[in-house]
């Protein structure tokens, strides 16, 4: 059973600003007015004022062009550039970047697919240039998959919450993952939810390089607050397909395409009917658009496997398609067997939790059993006697 728990990251809608400020405001409001269900309209006015003030603050800090980065050849693991994070006299690590540097300049982007545990929509509109109408190119399309509060947001495709962002430029998707009523009831008992942190960005062709696709797997949520604390990213650039030898879809590309399709699925998988009439778009159009985008690029990073963590209970083969059991399957079938003289070799496996950094000992033990599997006939694993350190 997969249960992805991150209850400490926030229970608000993520639109009002960074997590810490927004949560403090919500807590004060609940204490003042007697609970979550007794919110007066005055709170909305206060929140609107805060958002306006924040927009004004961001306008005073116009985006500066950032250097164009290159993450070819299997990608790299990089870290957040945090001010004051180094000791006096300690040199700065070369692989430290801001979210803006990893995403790039707004004018170079054609399309973007962003998933996160809540979104800071004011800040995203700023760093992605969503309100700028004179950027180069005729086509710009951004999708934001926001999936952590199904109690109040049924699955569907909706307008970007900032009114000055054109509807044709950006849309918000609440994906179909559970029956809406069942999901709402389930969250009353268990704080478990779907919150991937995957970014996919398509960049236009320029004199310096051809069009390319960038995939980012991050521990960072899409908010200004998370950009100021330590986070880790795997970033990889993929080229356009070139010839018939690349006609077959690599496993990584197929896994990525399947995950994106599921995230953009807003229909009941049984009846194939729209689940909510308030949606502003047919989700099948977005699914088709991203299917075509991903087909243009050849995605086969050597030694890299994409594993999704999806809450739910699974049995049989389905249990090995997601989560830590999928990690175990990948290790067993892709690592060579350890030689006899290394069977008892001890080493440490490091894991990076999400931005909250909250991982319990029980979770570590479960991961250790899957990550450090023993030998199998004709295959491999990390071996049994290992440490697992977050």
Automatic annotation (TrEMBL):
Positions with biased composition (Acidic residues): 1-12
GO biological process, one term: DNA repair
Region (Disordered): 1-20
Domain of life where this protein originates: Eukaryota
Catalytic residues as annotated in Swiss-Prot or TrEMBL: 195 (nucleophile)
GO cellular component terms, semicolon-separated: nucleus
GO molecular-function terms, A-Z: phosphoric diester hydrolase activity
Binding annotation for substrate: 197
Pfam families listed in its UniProt record: Tyr-DNA_phospho
PANTHER family referenced in this protein's UniProt entry, alphabetically: TYROSYL-DNA PHOSPHODIESTERASE 1 (PTHR12415)
Protein name: Uncharacterized protein
Species name: Hemiselmis andersenii (Cryptophyte alga)
């Amino acid at each position: 059973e997969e249960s992805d728990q991150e209850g400490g990251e926030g229970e608000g809608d993520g639109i009002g600003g960074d997590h810490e400020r927004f949560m403090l405001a919500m807590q004060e409001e609940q204490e003042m007015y007697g609970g979550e269900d007794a919110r007066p309209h005055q709170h909305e006015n206060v929140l609107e004022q805060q958002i306006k003030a924040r927009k004004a603050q961001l306008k005073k800090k116009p985006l500066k062009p950032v250097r164009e980065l290159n993450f070819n050849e299997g990608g790299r693991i990089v870290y957040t550039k945090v001010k004051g994070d180094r000791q006096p006299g300690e040199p700065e690590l070369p692989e430290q970047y801001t979210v803006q540097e990893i995403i790039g300049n707004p004018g170079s982007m054609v399309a973007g697919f962003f998933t996160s545990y809540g979104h800071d929509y004011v800040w995203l509109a700023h760093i992605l240039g969503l309100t700028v109408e004179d950027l180069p190119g005729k086509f710009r399309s951004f999708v934001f998959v926001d999936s952590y509060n199904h109690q109040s947001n049924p699955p569907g495709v909706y307008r970007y919450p900032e009114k000055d962002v054109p509807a044709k430029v950006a849309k918000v998707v609440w994906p179909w993952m559970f029956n809406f009523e069942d999901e709402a009831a389930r969250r009353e008992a268990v704080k478990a939810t779907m919150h991937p942190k995957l970014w996919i960005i398509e960049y236009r062709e320029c004199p310096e390089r051809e069009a390319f696709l960038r995939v980012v797997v991050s521990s960072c949520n899409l908010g200004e607050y998370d950009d100021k604390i330590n986070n880790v990213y795997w970033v990889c650039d993929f080229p356009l397909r070139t010839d018939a030898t690349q006609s077959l879809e690599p496993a990584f590309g197929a896994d990525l395409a399947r995950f994106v399709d599921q995230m953009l699925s807003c229909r009941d998988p049984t009846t194939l009917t729209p689940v909510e009439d308030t949606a502003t778009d047919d989700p099948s159009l977005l699914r088709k658009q991203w299917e075509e985008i991903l087909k243009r690029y050849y995605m086969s990073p050597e030694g890299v496997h994409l594993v999704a963590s999806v809450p739910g209970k699974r049995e049989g083969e389905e249990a090995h398609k997601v989560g830590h059991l999928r990690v175990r399957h990948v290790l067993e079938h892709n690592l060579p067997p350890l030689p006899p003289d290394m069977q008892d070799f001890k080493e440490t496996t490091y894991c990076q939790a999400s931005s909250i950094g909250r991982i319990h000992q029980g979770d570590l033990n479960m991961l250790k059993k899957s990550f450090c599997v023993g030998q199998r006939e004709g295959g491999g694993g990390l071996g049994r006697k290992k440490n697992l350190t977050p």
